[in-house]
Amino acid sequence: MSNVVCVWAGDMYSEEYVRRLADFAHLHTTKQINFVCFTDKKREPIAGVDFRLMPAMQFVGGKLWWYKIYIFSKEADLIGDCLYMDLDVVPLKTLDPLLEYNAPFVILQDFNRIHNKNFSVSNSSIIKWRPETAHYIWHQFKDQIHEITTKYRGDQDYLTKIIGTNKTWWPLDYACSFKWEWLTKPEYMEPYVLVFHGKPKPEDFKFDLTKMFKDKNDQLSKNQIHR
After folding, report:
1. Residue 111: what pLDDT?
2. pLDDT score at 208
3. Which residues, other chains included, contact 68 with Cβ-Cβ below 8 Å and sequence gap of 6+?
4. How many helices (H) and strands (E) does the chain have?
5. Mean pLDDT in runs of 10 for the chain (227 residues)?
């Protein structure tokens, strides 16, 4: 069995984000999955979601995205291949190809690839890994939380450094940036997952996103798109 994993820390995202991602994961794969949501506090139960409480941690600047590193810990108790997705990603099609992708550690190339195809930073919105190969990521972080959260702007910068060349980037047609790529490049017409980094977020749209995905010429207010 594989795990589909997310992290829900703080109150920036509502329960609806977790529910939507869990529902999609359960309904749009032929695989047996366990949907695991790591959280920083006790939450109300959601059908199909295995909530797991993370230890309380203090990060420089209070940036809660650092909780994501906990998913690589032995204490997370994940068994089997894992597919992590940020709460603000929107899957469009089956997750089977992502769950089946055969590589020890798969992560996105940062979306600045639109400016530099050789951009070397990774984006941590979607990650697939084998737990037994990644415990070292957490162990180093746990022992140097203050130093690491001071030195690096965010988790993806830390991950870029610590994994080095021990990674594979997702193919370009698997996942892309909603605002920087999907809206502007025809080669990204049908990715498996769209990433809503920064603004806008999915809830900023007052119409059915799934209908918009079928036709890029649908009415879309350009002033909703920000960096």
Report:
1. 93
2. 54
3. 7, 84, 124, 155
4. 6, 10
5. 96 92 93 96 95 91 91 96 95 94 96 93 97 94 93 94 95 90 74 87 62 45 36
Residues 23, 29: Cα–Cα separation, whole Å: 11
Three-state secondary structure string covering 162-204:
HHCCCCEECCCCCEEEHHHHHCCCHHHCCCCEEECCCCCCHHH
| Whole-angstrom distance, CA of residue 187 vs CA of residue 183 | 10
| Token pair in block for residue 215 | 């036709």
Q: Give residue 35's identity as a one-letter amino acid code.
A: F
Distances in Å between the Cα of 121 and the Cα atoms of 44, 100, 101, 158, 170 are 36, 24, 21, 10, 13
Q: Are 78 and 6 in contact (CB under 8 A)?
A: no
CA distances from 14 to 21, 76, 127 (A): 12, 23, 22
What token pair was written down for 138?
Answer: 């957490």
Instruction: With 0.70 as the threshold, say if the pTM is over it.
Output: yes
**Which are the contacts of 27, defined by CB distance < 8 A and separation ≥ 6?**
none
